[in-house]
Specification:
- The chain has 81 residues and is an all-alpha fold.
- It has one domain.
- It is 57% helix and 0% strand.
Length: 81
């Protein structure tokens, strides 16, 4: 997989800058670009993939164990016709 880097000039608050400095130091990154990338990917994982959270998986495993019913006409059964 080829990875292309995007260059961006950004304006951030002093607080965001301090947070990035902490993330950079804590993870021993070389620069704040690595810290921004890390934070974006971590937040994105939480935001974009909630179905992979442990509580969601447990809920789906519980649902999978429930007894199922046969439905011949879904639309008719649920008043969609």
């Amino acid at each position: 997989m080829v990875m292309y880097m995007v260059h961006a000039m950004i304006d951030i608050s002093e607080e965001a800058n301090q947070i990035l400095s902490i993330v950079k130091a804590k993870n021993k990154f070389n620069d704040k670009s690595e810290a921004i990338n890390f934070v974006a990917l971590e937040y994105g994982e939480e935001l974009l993939e909630p179905e992979l959270k442990p509580d969601f998986i447990a809920k789906m495993q519980k649902v999978a164990k429930e007894k199922s019913i046969k439905v011949d006409d879904f639309a008719k059964r649920y008043g969609l016709k």
